[in-house]
TrEMBL record:
Any one biological process term the GO annotation gives: carbohydrate metabolic process
Organism, as annotated: Lupinus albus (White lupine)
Family annotation (SMART domains): Glyco_32
Annotated keywords: Glycosidase, Hydrolase, Manganese
Phylogenetic classification of the source organism: Eukaryota, Viridiplantae, Streptophyta, Embryophyta, Tracheophyta
The protein's name in its UniProt record: Putative glycosidase
InterPro entries in UniProt: ConA-like_dom_sf, Fructan_Metab_Enzymes, Glyco_hydro_32, Glyco_hydro_32_AS, Glyco_hydro_32_C, Glyco_hydro_32_N, Glyco_hydro_beta-prop_sf
PROSITE patterns: GLYCOSYL_HYDROL_F32
Residue span(s) of domain Glycosyl hydrolase family 32 C-terminal: 352-545
Pfam families: Glyco_hydro_32C (PF08244), Glyco_hydro_32N (PF00251)
Amino acid sequence: MENFAKDASSHSINSIKYLVPENQPHRTCYHFQPPHNWMNDPNGPMYYKGVYHFFYQHNPFGPTFGKIMVWAHSVSYDLINWIHLKHALEPSEPYDINGCYSGSVTILSEEKPAILYTGNDNNKNQVQNLAMPKNLSDPYLREWVKHSQNPVMVAPSGIEMDNFRDPTTAWKGNDGKWRVIIGAKNGDDGKVILCHSEDFVHWILDPIPFYAIDNYGMCECPDFFPVSICGTNGVDTSVQNSSIRHVLKLSYQNEQQEHYFLGKYQPDQENFMTDTKFTGTSLDLKLDYGAFYASKTFFDYAKKRRILWGWVQESDTTKDDIEKGWAGLQSIPRQVWLDKSGKQLMQWPIEEVEKLRDKQVSILGKKLIGGSTLQVSGITASQVDVEVLFELPELESAEWLDGNEVDPELLCSEEYASKSGTIGPFGLLALASEDLTEKTAIFFRIYRTPNGYKCLMCSDESRSSLRQDLNKRTYATTFDIDPNIKTISLRSLIDRSIIESFGEEGRVCLTNRVYPSLAIDKDAHLYVFNNGTQTVFISKLNAWSMKHAEFGYEEKIENINS
Ligand code: DQQ
């Protein structure tokens, strides 16, 4: 691919002119946010000729979900520092006049990117539309032209006309035809519809759903991509060979959770055989067990990796969002790959985030006896990247947990961080006030079960703020651990009102949104704790204060109706 990066990197980002009040303690410093107003799903992320493009669902008129959603557009050279551009898509035609909803980008032949997005049409039905860049020699692809034959797809029979949305990135089969899947529902039954096309304009919809699930409601924002069975490199979306597996990810609207399945895609039969069935229990795989939704991946041609973005919702009140003037964050982009076991995905913040690491403090070989709390001082604890490796005692002493099928969130809410256990709870207290009246605990606790050992990973927001009007959640999952395991790791990216945590090197992810009232700016603290009777060791801990990422824009973004 020809590369624009050299020319375009001389472009300097204009100073940030936020249209929201400055010095807001909960506005993040290195997570992606628009300058103001509402943001939800990531749309059409791509790497194109040296530039990363990120589009997202945005209400330009206010900090709540709007009647008229646009595709806002930002570009970057490193996925960390961003330039906000004019909106790529705004409602303008009968087929999208009630909103340009989510979709994806596909790079077609001759390296032409194409957006497939959902339009809410003049009858409030959902149809699929196509848009192409106006000028391929513009490195930022600032202008997009809607196709004259839009809409290119309408809901097939058996699908509700107003619940047919969110096309994926398309993949090309060996027969040269493009395929795309689209989320849908009928009544309370979720569906995923497969469509194919020879020219990306004329589409045939398969009458047999690619995936269907009863009683779980709309399957929003599907994602379908290959993963390599060996190594951490990503694979382009159209690759099909014996050294890959496929991932189908669905955002269940009723649950607001991101479930995924690993399986085998058989292109000749247009069939995806999942390795496991959906059980509706804690055994199901989720990309993130916390506040993370409507995610989307893309293949990064520059670094041969697959990158995942997800929308992280607010959990404060709408009144707060209106006062703040903004709502919604994106997760830090995460590299995603198949674990060596072949049984689950692994995720890790992209390496570029480490460029923001500033002052470092370390703790090595420190004993954490039961009931102890140790402050990690010397860093800006409101915005920090912390990695800790805990050394465990012998596992035989772990508490018994009856039965294999436990409800991890219930367990976590009963066995919260401040209640003593045997091996754990131990972990981090993030965004904590000095007197620990405010804290968000991210912790582990180990149990013996009839079939081996299980680790509970939990995040407890119940004491995250003195405020009573917040939605404070307990997020948790359990995972099996090897009886010979000696250590367990945790990394948390803490950024003023978000904590993204990665347990066991990315095996389990949990994201929290919290709004402390005491633990803000310089009054935020970070602690390591152990409330188990058994001693654990901090084998090593490294924490870095994080610098601000740069967010600016080229031109003032105009209101679309002014
Ligand atoms: N958000 C979009 C829809 C999608 C939903 C509208 C998921 O296209 O289904 O903003 O959050």
